Amino acid sequence: MKLTKIITTILFTVLSIFVFEQSVTANTAIVNGEGVNVRSGPGSEYDSIGNVNDGQSYPLVQQQNDWVEIDYNGESGWVSQEYINIERTEQEYDEIDSDSAETMYNNTHLRSGPSVNDAIIEYVDQGTILNIVHSEKEWLEVEYEESTAFVHRDFVTDTTKLPNNDGFKNKTIVIDPGHGGRDVGAIGTSNTYEKDFTFLTAQELASELTYLGADVHLTRSHDEFISLNSRASYTNFVDTDAFISIHYNSVADLPDVTGIETFYYSDQMKPLAESVHQGMVRASGDEDRGISYGDFQILRLSLQPSLLLELGFISNKEQEALLSTNGYQKQLVSGILEGLSKHFNR
Ligand SMILES: [Zn+2]
Prior knowledge:
This protein is of the alpha+beta class. It is built from 7 helices and 20 strands. 28% of the residues lie in helices and 32% in strands.
């Protein structure tokens, strides 16, 4: 044989194995009857486009009421269900050895039990990390609030299968709640202080990250004044994977202005900034004010991967009210987590 012929033969063999493997994993419609009509749509009023005979099998596309759509030699064909036996191929699910899974789609259903008949108790976004309590064939029981919920295996990826993923384990993160003590930061429309909002967000972020296995440090654990120098040298002392400085904005003269803005100092931090920023904007639904280079002392002094987040304007009355709510804080934090997780797993 000439070399090209050998290669062609090998290629063909490989291809046919592949095609064969694909066909055995799908559900199959087996004809039960002679000269059964194949129609162009799901009903006897549709035109007949051919006939099938007893024992013939076709890939099943879908079922609609009493009709079955088959792949009729590359065309779509419909056969009355009474002449079809469906052979279901049990999908194989590998043992999950990770203790968490990540959702692959937006609006993934969490259910109260391990079947589609169980109530949907929550819709979660793509990229949500779920802690696995127990895995059972095609359903995973995951931690949800104070209890557990079930998610179908088809909608999640085992986090161990993600490239280079180790979640937040082995990650050290320093969270810097901006301002504190006599430095109140910006002042909101109802005389609220930036330092209180930054602390609220930092605590929520810290508790979520700790829960996800990260080693978390805060530059302040209560309402006290700490200089920018001390904050920076603290994070340089702790060997951190990310330093996140949290701030809120204010422009008293422009009470309509809202939005989230993310600052980085060195260009190497741009991908991290982009990732976290996108997560926050998506999760919060607040205005996107983009990522920018920011010549902030805290970023300049930090030798570690650092970001400064401006998470919203407390000079905007609606934002200020929203920021005081637990729900919105949780949304913001879930966005930060999503961004960090995507960045670390890249
Ligand atoms: Zn600030």
